[in-house]
Each structure stands twice: as structure tokens, then as C-alpha cells.
Amino acid sequence: MRYLKLFVLAAAAALFAAACATNTNTNTATGPGRTVTINANSGVPAASPAPAATPDELAAARITYNTTCAKCHKENGEGGVADLDEGEKLKVPSFKVEHSINHTDEQFVRKITNGDKEEGMPAFKGRLTDEQIKHLVHYIRQEFQSGGPKAGQGHAGAH
User: Fold this and answer.
1) Cβ proximity of 37 and 159 under 8 Å
2) pLDDT tens figures, 63-74
3) How much is the pLDDT for 37?
4) Can you tell me the mean pLDDT for 49-63?
5) In a domain, 113, yes or no
6) Cα 124 from Cα 12, distance rounded (Å)
């Protein structure tokens, strides 16, 4: 079983590396509530919206979630009481409740990056790349929130 897990992890890492190495020759600019992709050759904004995470990105984000987040937020995203290494207990929020669902992507990114001392959330800046954090937010939305908030709520474009 251990070798199977190692193989899956290695395969996902290889797919992630291959996806990251692809040169799309575009730049992405974000603004309040929107993302614009600009063709580097023409400088003209592309007509299509920013794409959702690809299956490879979600597979890599699943591994990141399981190795980084699941200890506290649980594999099912429901949170609860987490036992920390020092014997300390921490109440961890669920990703499935309205409060969490209504967070914008930018709020999720900030919280993962900088942590939240009041809630006991550690900062992952320096431990995870900006891309890993962005893909982690996509994964949380897809896996635990059926894609995110309902129309008109949260989910402002940090894609």
C-alpha cells in the first residue's frame, strides 16, 4: 500500500511538473472580480475567461490538500476538532458550511498564505507556492463546495 501511495504521488508530481512547464505565451492580469488573459504576442486581452483548474491541477491539489490540510480540515473537508502535535486541540471550520462557501477566492488565498492567528490557522507562505495555493482553492471549491457559492455570492475572481 505504501508503494502504491508513493507511485501515485510521484505520478501526480510528474503530471504537475509537465503542466507547469508548458509555455502558453500569455500573461494574466487580475482586477476586482475579474481575470483577463493577455496574449503576449499581441498585447490584446483574450476573449475567453480564465479557465478552471485542469484535472492534472486538481490531482496535484488533492495531494497538497491530503498532505497539508487534511490533518486539521479532515479528508472530507468537514473540519471539527483537530489534535495538534503538542497535545493541543483546535476547532477547525468546515469548508461545507455557508460561512466558508461565501468566502471569495481572494479571501481563501489570503488566509492560506498568511494564516489566521485568531483561528489558529498557520501561514503557508514559503511552504506552498502561489500556484499551489490557487489550485488548492479550486480543489476546495470543486471537492467540498460543488464549485463555490451560489450566483451573486462570494467567489470573486482570484482564478
Assistant:
1) no
2) 999 999 999 999
3) 42
4) 77
5) yes
6) 21
